[in-house]
């Protein structure tokens, strides 16, 4: 299998395109790349119960976009991404309310597999809500979490309205952060 997500355009041509055009050029290249390549892999995790990969993948995208859009990292960036693009109208699908718990869980998955905090989270694909918290136990429905995330990238999804969320100066800053990241090797 060939990874074409980064190789369909020369480095020099892409850099010039980013530098010489409006912020939407680089932002939509980033968002389109995530939507067309990365999200295809995230989408299959639910049906195959690859829940750890689901959480790792969504978190990677959330942190990438939050850093580009707002210069935010770690929990602050993850929570902002959820608030802007994933949260629903009711508390049981406002994942930003439990951003700290999901962020901590992602850190366990990525860095501390056997951490005792793993006893504080459960997956329930049949839970009627996006999540519930009982005492110190977070029960999360990965299907709902993933669907909310993927819907933000669908046609008409909230992420495509980035220009209504970001000011002109924030758009320019996002463009520059994308260029800076692209230049780094």
Question: Could you walk me through the main structural features you see in this protein, from its secondary elements to its overall organization?
Answer:
The protein is mainly alpha-helical and 185 residues long. The protein has one domain (12-183). 61% of the residues lie in helices and 6% in strands. It has helices at residues 11-20, 23-47, 51-70, 74-86, 99-111, 142-153, 162-165, 168-183; strands spanning 121-123, 131-134, 137-140. A three-stranded mixed sheet has the order 1-3-2. β2 (131-134) and β3 form a beta hairpin. α2 (23-47) runs antiparallel to α3 and α3 packs across α8 (168-183). The longest helix has 25 residues, at 23-47.
Spatial shape: elongated
Unreliable residue stretches: none
The number of E-state strands comes to 3
Oligomer: single chain
| Mean pLDDT figure | 92
Q: How would you characterize the largest beta sheet? A: 3 strands, mixed
Would you list the SSEs in sequence order as H and E? HHHHHEEEHHH
Structural class: mainly alpha
Beta-strand percent range = 5-15%
Helix percentage: 55-70%
N- and C-termini, Cα separation: 23 Å
Main sheet: which strands, in order across?
A: 1-3-2
Specify the number of helices: 8
Number of domains: 1
Q: Write down the Rg.
A: 17 Å
Keywords:
single chain; mainly alpha; 3 strands; 8 helices; 185 residues
Q: Which helices and strands, and how do they pair?
A:
Layout: H1 11-20, H2 23-47, H3 51-70, H4 74-86, H5 99-111, E1 121-123, E2 131-134, E3 137-140, H6 142-153, H7 162-165, H8 168-183
Parallel strand pairs: 1-3
Antiparallel strand pairs: 2-3
Helix pairs in contact: 2-3, 2-6, 2-8, 3-4, 3-5, 3-8
